[in-house]
Design goal:
heterodimer; A: 264 residues; alpha/beta; Rossmann fold; 2 domains; six-stranded mixed β-sheet; three-stranded antiparallel β-sheet; 8 helices; 37% helix; 17% strand; B: 236 residues; binds guanosine-5'-triphosphate; binds magnesium ion; binds zinc ion; P-loop_NTPase (chain B)
């Protein structure tokens, strides 16, 4: 069932003040959509509605269609392989298990039946994927709760990317975790998925093909990115690369000098 | 009237969840009331009353709240019937992990939160094993992967129950839980009904108020812990 997703559609409900949302947004595989708006404007709520495949039964009154239809109940509440992978804002794990135990339990419950050797390999690949995103290497024997915010986030991302082949991915603010956000996005956004990403980060927002704008709990607008924005994105990426380079030099205890660090 | 027994560890989110579901019942035109069973103190009655929900509070004091429950639930059911409730919910904080307030043919709901540890479900006993519905709360605090793993651990202990995630703060999931709860059987009387699981056989001197420690003071149903190669005091 999960490999036959042709579309999801967001039908508007109402904002916190009861204003109707005039929205009918249909997304197809390959779409990357940013969700923007001030803190408290309802970005996480929108992602939660999609994760729940709301049927006008959440406070927002929104309705989410899958392949242009209300989902069957099995699809909403089914156990096992998930239609939707969600990376929420949580920065820390609370579970009492080591990294390796957690990955094995997660693999087991995603009913991937692994031989022991396969499991070892899987743990290795999740951990090494995570370590590509964080500067502080994660060890499989570390308890989850001893991981730093950045390590936890990197592991959550790697786990989502490697273990769940969900066709729909929801991301809530990957930027403020001290991880390489561009790499994180690349890891999560493999081709032919539908991705929605709440973000305050200009580069992430402009990488998206369109933006859902939220205001006081409601969807206020949906903007398509245009050519001017694509050019701006290139400029921003150059600036970002320059800042990263400076940060790296500072980290290594080097001096910053010369025209190499002039931006543009 | 339907009787629904809801139990779970302290602060697992029972009241928060129930207040949300009771809102949903109201939208469906159903009148619900609550009996709260606890040990020494509870302010849950005020929370229900503030929402206009008829409520009784029973404090077990020095009894196990589940023992106290079974000796009082029948009278509470009559109270609910006299108020012409459609649904009576009992909320108890299962404390000893050995008792459970579940009654045969009364829908049994276990509430447990996502923070309680991956191995907690295996330690929980009849409270979890005998439930018809397991409601898992506080999913907003953990990652999706942790929710999945925790739910899986619950399933391993009770594969028969309907397991669902519900958020006690936003009420997300209340419609599904509400719909399941309204399928509970109606009861006329509890007289002669049976508990799903016997309460522990525990009539020892300490049940009867003894406070001193030592073999001289232990009487009745006492069980000694196995300690290798150390002489054990005789139990009289
Ligand atoms: N984040 C979060 N907090 C929750 C959720 N459900 C309940 N809480 C919080 O957990 C705490 C305990 O909730 P209660 O509903 O009082 O728990 P309870 O099981 O009724 O507690 P007792 O009856 O005292 O045993 C409160 O601070 C709630 O706000 C949830 O889904 N998410
Ligand atoms: Mg309570
Ligand atoms: Zn007990
Ligand atoms: Zn005793």
């Amino acid at each position: 069932m999960t490999d036959s997703i042709q579309s999801i559609t967001i039908l508007g409900g109402r904002s916190k003040s009861g204003q109707p949302e005039d929205v009918n947004l249909r997304l197809v595989p390959g779409d990357l959509v940013a969700v923007v708006g001030p803190t408290g404007s309802g970005k996480s709520r929108l992602l939660a509605d999609i994760e729940y495949i709301a049927q006008r039964d959440t406070p927002s009154g929104r309705c989410i269609l899958i392949n242009d239809q209300p989902p069957a109940s099995e699809l909403r509440f089914a156990w096992g392989r998930k239609l939707i992978a969600q990376l929420s804002q949580n920065m820390n794990f609370v579970m009492d298990a080591t990294v390796a135990e957690f990955i094995s339990m997660h693999a087991e419950c995603r009913d991937n039946s692994f031989e022991e050797a396969g499991l070892e390999k899987l743990i290795g690949s999740v951990v090494s994927q995570a370590n590509r995103l964080t500067g502080e290497p994660i060890h499989p024997d570390t308890p989850l709760t001893a991981l730093s915010g950045g390590q936890s986030r990197a592991l959550m991302i790697a786990d989502t990317a490697v273990l769940s082949d969900s066709p729909i991915v929801l991301i809530d603010e990957i930027e403020n975790a001290g991880i390489d956000r561009r790499q994180a996005l690349d890891v999560l956004v493999q081709n032919q998925k539908i991705v929605l990403m709440a973000t305050h980060d200009p580069i992430l927002a402009l990488l998206a093909h369109s933006r859902i704008v939220l205001k006081s709990g409601g969807i206020a607008d949906v903007l398509r990115s245009d050519e001017g924005e694509s050019e701006l994105l290139e400029e921003l990426q150059k600036a970002d690369a320059a800042i990263m380079a400076v940060r790296e030099k500072l980290r290594r205890g080097e001096r910053l000098e010369g025209p190499g660090f002039k931006i543009s | 009237m339907k009787l629904i027994t809801v139990a779970g560890p302290p602060s697992s989110g029972k009241t928060s969840m129930l207040l949300r579901v009771i809102d949903w019942f109201k939208e469906q035109g159903l009148k619900a009331g609550v009996v709260k069973f606890d040990c020494v103190a509870s302010k849950d009655d005020e929370r229900y009353r503030a929402k206009g929900v008829p409520v009784l509070l029973g404090l077990a004091g020095n009894l196990c709240p589940d023992h106290y429950f079974v000796t009082n639930i029948e009278a509470c059911a009559r109270w609910g019937q006299s108020l012409e409730l459609d649904i009576l919910i009992s909320e108890s904080a299962g404390l000893c992990n050995r008792c459970s307030p579940f009654i045969r043919q009364a829908l049994a709901v276990c509430v447990i939160d996502n923070l309680s540890g991956a191995n907690t479900p295996t330690k929980m006993g009849p409270l979890l094993k005998q439930a018809d519905i397991v409601a898992i709360t506080k999913g907003d605090i953990v990652s999706q992967a942790e929710r999945e793993v925790f739910q899986y651990q619950v399933r391993k202990v009770n594969a028969r129950a309907e397991v669902l995630q519900i958020n006690g703060l936003t009420g997300q999931g209340k419609e599904r839980l509400g719909a399941l709860l309204t399928q509970a059987q109606d009861i006329d009387t509890l007289d002669g009904r049976k508990l799903r699981f016997s309460m522990p056989a525990a009539v020892c001197s300490y049940c009867l108020g003894e406070t001193k420690i030592g073999s001289d003071y232990q009487m009745g149903n006492v069980k000694s812990i196995a300690i290798p190669d150390v002489p054990r005091p005789e139990v009289s």
